[in-house]
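re: that chain from earlier
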Amino acid sequence: MTKIKLALCQMNVIDDKRENLTKASSMINEASKNADFIVLPEMFNCPYSNDKFIEYGENENDSYTLDKLSELACKNNVYLLAGSIPEKESDKLYNTSYLFDKAGKIIAKHRKMHLFDIDVKDKITFKESDVLTAGDDFTVADTEFGKIGIGICYDIRFPELARIMVEKGALVLFYPGAFNLTTGPAHWELLFRSRALDNQVYAVGVAPALNKQASYHSYGHSIIANPWGEIVAEAGCDEEIIFSEINLSEIKKVREELPLLKNKRKDLYEVIRK
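^ sequence. v structure.
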């Protein structure tokens, strides 16, 4: 299949896991009427805060959140990329995204590889590594539409990760993310256009809506960029679902017109996985 009907669920996340799951369920059920691939935001079941990551953490084998999402993917016969949740494993905590197939089976998981440790003077400071552990795996999953790559938020700032996923066959790069009101206006759109353009793929970002009552203010602006580096869909800052049908044949067309990947000087440089 060369076309994917995407739905990006830019949901408002509050400090109540069950209410967040109720909201996610409602948006998934609504989105499934017009989409076959649905995406949730980073930390969609949990406020974006280190103390809440600890409080909301779930073990993969005993997860209220994952059980509910599996049921929703199966019931609605859709692929479901579950943004991310705080995942517990023994004494470690990860920021983890899960991909469910149409039968509700987990077919891929990605643990955020690059942790968000920043200090923009007089604007925002955040240090995920105070409580989270970084993942080490490159995540490329097979779907009926072709291969997709998964990163999370800060991962998009590292072009090497995107290139390795594309070299492993990914045609669409998904980055559930929660940029803030400092980095969002400055870099969000630019990064998605850049990763799409660099690799001649689709790049998709799904964010929580802006919740002014929260301690962390998400920029929102869930987005899809095409292989030519154009924005084909973008939300505002409020809660909404954005729909877009993307045509994967555009990738082949663009790569034939502007053969960047073929024109690489492999005799001079390469990006390698260690």
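The CA atoms of residues 108 and 253 lie 28 Å apart.
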